[in-house]
Specification:
Blueprint: H1 4-25, E1 28-31, E2 34-35, E3 43-45, E4 48-52, H2 53-60, E5 63-67, E6 70-75, E7 78-83, E8 88-91, E9 94-97, E10 103-105, E11 108-112, H3 113-119, E12 123-127, E13 130-134, E14 139-140, E15 143-153, E16 158-163, H4 166-178, E17 180-184, E18 190-191, E19 202-212, E20 217-226, E21 239-243, E22 248-252, H5 254-270, E23 273-278
Parallel strand pairs: 1-13, 18-19
Antiparallel strand pairs: 1-2, 3-4, 4-11, 5-6, 6-7, 7-8, 8-9, 10-11, 12-13, 14-15, 15-16, 15-19, 16-23, 17-22, 19-20, 20-21, 21-22
Helix pairs in contact: 4-5
């Protein structure tokens, strides 16, 4: 009997340990209701939820800058500086103590979720094996934006993608508004058929529509790129933007148009960009 009891205790300990490890490995993270499709999942360490830095920074809209063992995260008027393996952080110039130190694992920096999320104005909730982060809703002229719909015209039909997540929506809007240049004349000719376009025509790159919770459009923008002449070094295309609300045309940064595609790529990787319509053959 004495030999059996330790064996039972060891078996129970093994089961509990395995269960605990499995629980940590199965943690899912949601931001604004969207399950994050990250390669590396959050994990519990010393009873604190730790997440890969890129996961939290990308999905709450924070910019990241590395300097040695320090990393700075900025969003609007908020700035956080973290140091690897240090329980001290700097938030808007003031030193604060962390209840969990940032650490490296598999070449990724894990950071305390609750501190970062709340420092950027987010709320954090836990339910079983899911941790939910809700960012602040984004508003245009007092109306909450529910999603951004992006339509790309093809030779036949079109594809419509939907961008979700408050941080992604805000970043998209800022990219459009902050990169408008001087007002310009409307293009003389907009090509709707790739086979009939001429040098100097403008192709529509994408139509971007910010929609409210009822599905109605709040505001929309159209991006157009000039068709180069034959043999001309394409380089960076000349891009213009049409602001539907203003009914005006503006020059637009070609670099910013590339940043829009990069934003979409990140959003798609994390589960925030989905195709909602495809009318191409």
């Amino acid at each position: 009997m004495k030999k059996i009891l330790p064996a039972i205790l060891l078996a129970l300990l093994f089961i509990l340990t395995a269960s605990s490890v499995g629980y940590a490995a199965d943690i899912q993270m949601k931001v604004d209701g969207v399950t994050i499709l990250a390669e590396v999942k959050p994990e519990m360490k010393n009873n604190r939820m730790m997440v890969p830095l890129r996961v939290i920074s990308e999905n709450v809209g924070a910019n990241v800058h590395w300097s040695g063992t320090e990393v700075a995260l900025t969003k609007n008027d908020r700035k956080i500086v973290l140091t690897l393996n240090s329980d001290k952080a700097v938030f808007n110039g003031k030193t604060v103590l962390l209840d969990a130190k940032p650490y490296l694992k598999d070449n990724r920096l894990f950071v305390p979720l609750r501190f970062l999320a709340q420092s950027f104005g987010c709320t954090v909730n836990y339910s079983h094996t899911t941790v939910s982060v809700d960012t602040k809703p984004f508003y245009i002229d007092g109306v909450q934006v529910a999603a951004v719909q992006e339509e790309i015209q093809m030779t036949m039909g079109s594809i419509v993608d939907e961008l979700q997540g408050h941080a992604y929506i805000e970043t998209m809007y800022n990219l459009l508004m902050q990169n408008k240049g001087n007002e310009v004349e409307a293009p003389a000719r907009i090509s709707l058929n790739v086979h009939n376009r001429l040098p100097g025509d403008y192709d529509q790159v994408v139509q971007i529509d910010f929609v409210g919770e009822n599905g109605d459009s709040i505001t929309s923008f159209g991006l157009y790129a000039e068709v180069p002449s034959e043999g001309e070094d394409e380089g960076e295309p000349k891009v213009v933007i049409y602001a539907e609300t203003e009914k005006r045309w503006y020059a637009f940064s070609s670099k910013a148009s590339q940043e829009i595609w990069e934003l979409n790529a990140i959003a798609g990787k994390n589960g925030f960009l989905t195709m909602i319509s495809n009318t191409t053959p």
